[in-house]
Amino acid sequence: MTTVALIPAAGSGTRLGAGMPKAFVDLGGRTILERSVDGVFAAGVDEVVVAVPAELLDATRSMLPRVHVVIGGSVRSDSVRACLAEVGPSASDVVLIHDAARALTPPEVFTRVIDAVSQGSDVVVPAVPVTDTLKRVVTQQSGAVETVVATVDRTPLRAVQTPQGFRPEALRRAHAAAGDATDDAGLAEAAGYAVHVVPGDLMAFKITTAWDLRIARMLLESTGV
Ligand code: C5P
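Above: inputs. Below: predicted complex with cytidine-5'-monophosphate.
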């Protein structure tokens, strides 16, 4: 069973506000991207492709000699398709797509996803239950005021993480149309595939804001990873 991992890392990092693309921000002496790539290899993945902003192509190739590095696109799905074009989806038995921003994902999450695809699922996502109360709102007065219109039952809701796992054919079909989605399983779902869920892990959270980065740094300090 061979596994390839595609890592979109071409986001601008605007919400993080670090003044540089998010994947290249320092996280305990290594970049967020290096930590994500380390995690992928530690999980036994055979081959890795990373998509980065054009201006960081050469620097990333020097930083990560074991991985293929390509130029990402203007939206996440374009970055994934750039990775796919580099390897071709049928180059392995399992294809994982993993956000660079989920730098602290434990190896067990990778194992659960790979195992589920190996056992016959076309598309697999790791997910965790939602803990906050969720409300649907409408925005009035030019965005100044929000009013609740419904309280949503959170029982059947899940917050979905990465790595997401695919049989190569399912991923190829999911990306056959040039759509964009916040995750690749969403494209597969739209293409008619059943998406199976395995337990995720709170450590697989996505580093998006300055708050997330602070938490990630504290976790690294406290666990000594
Ligand atoms: O923006 P968001 O945090 O949802 O991005 C998720 C992942 O997709 C990040 O690792 C980011 O670097 C990547 N991305 C990308 N190309 C884009 C936008 C986001 O590779 N154009």
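The pocket of cytidine-5'-monophosphate is lined by residues 8-11, 22-23, 51, 72-76, 79, 99-101, 182, 206, 208 (CB under 6 Å).
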